[in-house]
Amino acid sequence: MDLVRTASLITALSAAEHCLGFLYRILLSRVLGSEGLGRYQMALTVFSVLSTLSASGLPVTLSRTLSSHRARGNVRAAEAARTAAVCIALGVSLLLTALLFALRPLMGSVFSDSGAESLFYILLLGLPFTAAYAVLRGGFWGEKRFFLYSFTELAEEIAMIAAGVVLLVLTSLALPKENLAAGAVLLSHLVSFGIAFGCFWARGGKFVSPGREIKPLALAALPVTAVRALSSLAGTLVSVLFPLRLMAAGATSATAMAEYGVVCGMVMPVMHIPSAVLSSIALVMVPSFSECAARGEREKLAALTEKALNAALLVAGALIPLYAVCGEDIGILLFDSPKSGQMIAFGSLLLIPMSLTMIAGSLLNSLHCERQSLLIFLAGAGAMLLSVFFLTGKLSGGALLVGTGAEYALSAALSLLVLRKRTGRLRSGKYALKVLLAAGGAALIGHFVRELLFLHLSFLPALILTFLFVAGTEAGLIALFKLTDFKALLRRFLPKRRKSGRKTA
Question: What's the pTM?
Answer without folding.
Answer: 0.72
